Amino acid sequence: MSQELLLQVSPEIAINEQLLKEHVAKLIRVSFNEIKHISILKRSIDARQKTVKMNLKVVIYFQDDEFIDKKIQLPEYKDVSSAQEVIVVGAGPAGLFAALQLIELGLKPIVIERGKDVRGRRRNLKAINVDHIVNEDSNYCFGEGGAGTYSDGKLYTRSKKRGDVTRILELLVAFGASADILIEAHPHIGTNKLPQIIQDIREKIIEMGGKVVFETRLTDILIKNNEVHGIVTQSGENILANKIILATGHSARDIFELLDRKNIFIEAKPFALGVRAEHPQTLIDTIQYSCDYRGEHLPPAPYSIVKQVGGRGLYSFCMCPGGVIAPCATSPGEVVTNGWSPSKRDQATANSGIVIELKLEDFKPFAKFGALAGLEFQKSIEQKSWHLAGESQKVPAQRMVDFTQNKISSDIPKTSYVPGTTSVEMGQVFPDFLTQILREGFSEFGKSMRGYLTNEAILHAPESRTSSPVRIPRDSISLEHLQIKGLYPCGEGAGYAGGIISAAIDGEKCAIKISEALDF
After folding, report:
1. CB-neighbour burial class of residue 12 (10 A; exposed 0-12, middle 13-18, buried 19+)
2. What is the DSSP string of 486-519?
3. What pLDDT score does 296 carry?
4. In terms of Cα–Cα distance, which of 519, 408, 501, 390 is closest to 164?
5. Distant-in-sequence, close-in-space partners of 106: CB < 8 Å, separation ≥ 6
6. Measured at the alpha carbon of residue 162, what is the angle toward residues 156 and 163, in degrees to the nearest 5?
7. pTM of structure
């Protein structure tokens, strides 16, 4: 016999098995010893009132043999070493989960990744942080695991309608992630833990007969009679297959330019752009938890804000409690910011993108670039930031209140952004209409979160890689490109996902459609 129950308890009770059991026993009026086990199904924080509570969904077991702590197992993958081959371009979450799904369906993935393996990427991350050297193929955006690997591993998604979120989470647990991601409202793996999981996924792909090739960049797609026949790599090698999953990520500008040159239909897509704001984590804790000291029972506080300013959405994006800001340029001559947190979220600062939704009409000054107009708009902001910050990986920075008052900050304190900062009036970075929306928006944020608008907060510019500036249109049923048979645009880079989970789901969906097309 078991019983499900929804509870609201103090954080101290929520994290202590003994206290939780005592609380539940009293609540349902049974003796402590009658409860054999309590399993937490879902856990979230409710900080809306002055006293912070934890919301729990639990199952209570009254007999020892009722509860079985089952270890999540991987699917029974097949040996596909001699199976039909499918090319997967990109080893981010879309590409890796597409490869796993192909194997499960009896097809052999050939994964082509322009960057280095997940461990090898670290040398290039050090180079950009310390020496300001950008490797165009291996950086925070490119390389095994994709952009999410070294920028946090956040797993929260609103994409419940897109597919089976639980399946993706369970696969990650089977590959070594903490089972806590199955119960947390905003699951998170952490940049220090995710690389090993990515490596284990790759090793499983190879073990089952798939192939993973690093430092191999796609330079052309072989097409005849509007049907793919393979790809060409930068070494001039032809890799042949009549099914290609294109999962190259939102920053693969050379891929968008290749498709445009080949007259393969793509279209400009709106995205969001702004700054990355950094506060002391203790300040965010005080605001969100209404306390002077957070204590050991609560995690570092996140925040989420959405406002309408000037007829546009202005919102927090990729918020990182206890995290740091990273340099995410993919080419020399540009500056890009993003944020990440380790698994314990134990850094002294909190950061978040604060971004404005753009419209296609904003790209009119770049109309001559056609479908690449949004990309060129994005690029112009990043290149301007690079020049303003002294032509290095330093970022333009400004204290938050100074920005709202159009005043250059006399000094910028040390931030978590390792390459460094240059004091700049942010109005020089953005077009006037974006600058005005940001200024008004921070004032509105300060009204919603008392204490948020402060000169203790430092703005870093730009936060520009929120999503792809290009969509690669595909058929809604077959998921093939509208024009090219056998080409499956996939994930964030194609405009069909917005994070690790939704990208992984999209990768699986493309693999399933290929299997159906091949009658597997």
Report:
1. middle
2. TEEE-HHHHTS--SHHHHHHHHHHHHHHHHHHTT
3. 84
4. 501
5. 78, 80, 83, 515, 520
6. 85
7. 0.95
